[in-house]
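Exercise 7b. Backbone tokens:
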């Protein structure tokens, strides 16, 4: 089953997409179970409740689903954790050695957007880059976990992610910092759906990306240096992961930073896909610089 959130930003409704025989799919409303797909729902065994409700036919068909915007499949996470250089070939194309411990950074949760929403290029950006990634959605609190096995039990499911990055802001130079390069509005498209961990092998999923229809990345989550349970366990030693939080597991080789491809420009179309988790599409546009405030300040 594929968990979705459909509707305009801030007004998404929860739904589940079920593949039927012959390739057809049907979408059912989850409003009888919850108002949203969030940490509270996941922690309360929400995914199991969806499965039970489907089995007994207790969910109404969402007739208008095809005409609704697709939002991120989990409501605004409390924390978005990024993992850097988690594929050896990507570390090499970045001019770095593969890490011996996970490289961890944080992204503001207000960067999360839907999988098909237009993507804003910052007003003065010249090195905006794509990154297809496998995303982990946390289903129960994880803090100081004892083992990788305990960490695996904290994974609710997986999503497709694009960690859009401004390399000039990110990398060393004139005050380059990872936080600056990874925190831009609209830079974390998630979805189109969340697949429960029990329904898919997160350790063997092909990842691909395209720019204007031309292939860029082609790898597999089997090539991760640190797999999903290892990342959850490691992060839990340094922060409290809560239900609904998201970990982006890193990107494989084939980004513009490699020097083999041009950086993104307004009008470019980026597509990223994790097999079984769906394909995204973002059209880039130049975000306008903020206009100067007008009027006389109030006393």
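Sequence design result:
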């Amino acid at each position: 089953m594929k968990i979705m959130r459909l509707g305009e930003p801030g007004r998404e409704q929860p739904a589940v997409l079920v593949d039927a025989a012959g390739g057809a799919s049907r979408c059912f409303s989850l409003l009888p179970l919850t108002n949203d797909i969030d940490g509270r729902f996941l922690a309360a065994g929400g995914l199991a409740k969806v499965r039970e409700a489907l089995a007994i036919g207790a969910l109404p068909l969402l007739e208008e689903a095809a005409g609704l915007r697709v939002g991120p499949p989990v409501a605004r996470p409390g924390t978005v954790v990024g993992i850097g250089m988690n594929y050896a070939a990507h570390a090499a194309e970045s001019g770095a050695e593969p890490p011996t411990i996970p490289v961890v950074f944080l992204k503001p949760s207000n960067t999360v957007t839907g999988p098909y929403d237009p993507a804003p290029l910052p007003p003065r950006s010249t090195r905006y880059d794509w990154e297809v990634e496998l995303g982990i959605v946390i289903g129960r609190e994880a803090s100081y976990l004892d083992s990788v096995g305990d960490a695996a039990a904290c994974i609710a499911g997986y999503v497709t992610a694009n960690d859009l990055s401004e390399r000039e802001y990110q990398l060393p130079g004139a005050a380059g910092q990872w936080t600056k390069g990874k925190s831009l509005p609209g830079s974390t498209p998630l979805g189109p759906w969340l697949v429960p961990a029990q329904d898919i092998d997160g350790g063997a999923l092909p990842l691909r990306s395209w720019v204007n229809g031309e292939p860029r990345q082609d790898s597999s989550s089997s090539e991760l240096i640190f797999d999903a349970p290892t990342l959850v366990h490691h992060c839990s030693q340094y922060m409290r992961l809560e239900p609904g939080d998201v970990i982006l597991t890193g990107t494989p080789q084939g980004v513009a930073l490699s020097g083999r491809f041009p950086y993104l420009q307004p009008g470019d179309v980026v597509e990223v896909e994790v097999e079984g988790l769906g394909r995204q599409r973002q059209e880039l546009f130049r975000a306008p610089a903020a206009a100067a405030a007008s009027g006389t300040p109030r006393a």
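Instructor comment: The longest helix spans residues 46-55. The CA atoms of residues 28 and 62 lie 5 Å apart.
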